[in-house]
Amino acid sequence: IPVFILAGLLVHCVFLVSIFEIYFSSPLVHGMTPQQTPLPPPAKRLVLFVADGLRADSLYELNSNNTPQAPYLRSILENNGSWGISHTRVPTESRPGHVALIAGFYEDVSAVAKGWKENPVEFDSVFNESKYTWSWGSPDILPMFAKGATGDHVYTFCYTAESEDFGAQDAAKLDTWVFDHVKSFFNSSRSNQTLFSALHEDKVVLFLHLLGIDTNGHAHRPNSREYKENIKTVDEGIKEIASMIENFYGNDGKTAFILTSDHGMTDWGSHGAGHPSETLTPLIVWGAGVNYPQKVTSQFFEDNFLKEWKLEGLKRLDVNQADIAPLMASLIGVPFPLNSVGTLPLEYLNNSAHFKAESIFTNAIQILEQFKVKMSQKKKTTLSFLFTPFKPLSDSEQINFLKKARLYIQQQKYDEAVSLCKTLINLALEGLSYYHTYDRLFLGLSIAVGFVGWTTYVILVIVKTHTNLTKTIQTNNKETTVLFYSFAFVGTIIAFFLLIQTCPWTYYVYCLLPVPVWYAVVRELPVTQDLAMNLLSRHIGQSIGFLLVCTLGIEILVFSFFYRSTLTVGLLVFAGWPAITQLWVQAKTTALIWTLLCVLLAIFPLMPVVGREPNISLVVATGLLTVLISCFSLASLCKSKNKYRNNEDLKIHFYQVGCYFSVILN
User: Fold this and answer.
1) What is the mean pLDDT of residues 433-446?
2) Which one of 151, 232, 395, 627 has the lowest number of neighbouring Cβ atoms within 10 Å?
3) 365-369, 435-439, 535-539, 544-548 — which is least confidently predicted?
4) For residue 645, is pLDDT > 60?
């Protein structure tokens, strides 16, 4: 039994780790060449405001008296710039959101092992490609971009981590701190010639991370007075900073501004999932190289936001969050981040058709570079006769796309060039996904075969040792030896196949695991045959009924992952179970308690997943009730002459009650 338990722990550890190898491996690749638009950019500098936790509707909607929540930003989108919604992706957390905004790719899923807090793989960003970047804000966000930057040109100014008090009465002070330090920074530059000269260089980025809104949202909820007042504070601060920067540079018209958010927030103050309140964030862009508001008579979106926000007459330009990184790179003329998968939103640009065509062409080459590196890596680790390339982007197709797009640009057929480049970008993104998941089916099947084998073996062991459904069967040593060498031969073939493909060592674990597992299953073949004969000798209706009940139970568990209310059905079935058995006659009190508790528990899956308000009293009362019921059960067990009284199970009951009580105290 100890060997069986140890083997079980080992097998389940492999199953657990395989999830990260198959589904949570990093999509990032390295070795690409930086790509930069050859034409001069419209802006010398970019100011990026990220209002952490700001929902799109919270910024755009009007107050009850038809006044804007953020007057300055509202006037910008109505008179000076372009606006839309930035669509984020799960997980809607601060780090993934900022990575998408500034580096142009969605969260590296391997970061789940780091709790979404650190960079598991180094990546490029707009900050890294800039000449200088100065940033102010949270110590949780800024350092990760300075850490990944090459050289010493990304500077951070952070408040202390202790300042991020989610229960603070006035979290807006975090944003006030940022605005005050930016003003002080520019004032000090007038007496610091080195800093003054650096600020007047091209390709400069100023990043203001504003955490107050997110903090107030967590503490007081997005519909609270504190959250809305914080939006006004941010609006006023942005107005002052924008005016100060324009004056500092003598109103040279070479500054571009972007206001957006990393993620939204639910009505009860949480984020991380995929609800629209979490994934829809505002985007307002204005300044050098940015289109002015575009008047329209009609526009169609599936949502009804335009009417609610009274913005039907202004063209709404929605983007994916990762598209903002190439937009920033294009505005100030830096290379597109190497790992970016964003598509440049051309409608935001106020520039020549030639500039737009060259920019989207550069964007296409940058994404195609990633595709080529990914394809090359996969080709090296796959036998040539087994390698299946991504056919829509073969080597010849790539050359044709690039030649045709360049010819269109030379012939000044810019619309055709833009359309072709967008097609190339979409194909390259599909190809990236294709090669990233290339081995997923192969590895998934290996794990599935191992899992089915292990489940079968466990069932056979339980049947063999804990039931009387089978007879004691003598094993044939000669047959066992032949069986062992047969499976050893299969394992050798699999290992050789992986070796010549230079696969990672983890592939050996996943692919060889089914061999010993199924060897153990086949060794128990006599038990399987005996069990089958035993079951077939019983009444067929009874056997079919048993199988149907088992199948129904499994299906209910599977459906409960998607529809929680399915658990209610299962619990109600459990509640009625004593009525169709002898238990109702033999122990009416126990059966009645069982039925009552099952019905009460069946209500739980029908309740909301997340509550709007914490109810500490309810949690404590539930814990105390659990302890009382457990104590009552223990007392009854100790008084009775139960066969378990002197068993180890009694100690386990005591330990469980102690655990409940310690949890309540904590």
Assistant:
1) 93
2) 151
3) 535-539
4) no
Rounded to an integer, what distance in angstroms lies between the CA atom of residue 501 and that of residue 530? 43
User: What tokens does 369 get?
Assistant: 């570079």
pLDDT at 610 > cutoff 70? no
The rounded percent of the chain whose pLDDT value lies above 70 is 91
Torsion sign across C-alpha atoms 71, 72, 75, 76: negative
In the chain, the amino acid numbered 521 is V
Polymer length in residues for the chain: 666
Residue 23 tokens, joined = 């589904």
- Cβ atoms within 10 Å of 166's Cβ, excluding its own: 13
Q: Distance between terminal CA atoms of the chain?
A: 37
What pairing do the DSSP bridges indicate for beta strands 319-320 and 154-158?
unpaired
What is the C-alpha to C-alpha distance for residues 482 and 457, in angstroms, rounded to an integer?
A: 20
Peptide bond connecting 91 to the previous residue in cis, omega within 30 degrees of 0: yes
Rounded CA-CA distance 134/300 in Å is 39
User: Cα(213)–Cα(234) distance, rounded to whole angstroms?
Assistant: 9
Cβ count near 275 (within 10 Å)? 16
pLDDT digit string, tens, across residues 228-283: 999 999 999 999 999 999 999 999 999 999 999 999 999 989 998 899 999 999 99
Does domain 44-337 fall into CATH 3.40.720.10? Answer: yes
Q: How far apart are CA 309 and CA 617, in angstroms?
A: 40
Lowest mean pLDDT among 219-228, 480-489, 570-579, 622-631: 622-631
Report the mean per-residue pLDDT for the chain.
Answer: 89
Tell me what pLDDT residue 611 has: 55
Cβ 422 vs Cβ 345: under 8 Å = no
Strand ordering across the sheet containing 319-320: 154-158, 132-137, 204-210, 45-51, 255-260, 280-287, 81-87, 319-320
Tokens linked to 280: 């829809």
**Phi then psi dihedrals of residue 131, to 5 deg:** -75, -45
Residues forming beta bridges with residue 156, ordered by sequence position: 135
Rg, Å, the chain Cα set: 32
For position 666, what pLDDT does the model report?
A: 66
Q: Residue 311 corresponds to which tokens in the numbers above? A: 């913005």
Q: 87: part of which helix (H) or strand (E)?
A: strand 81-87
User: Nearest CA to 577 among 592, 564, 566?
Assistant: 592
Give the C-alpha separation, 220 to 232, whole Å: 16
Residues whose CB falls within 8 Å of the CB of residue 37, separated by 6 or more in sequence, listed in order = 330, 333, 355, 358, 359, 362
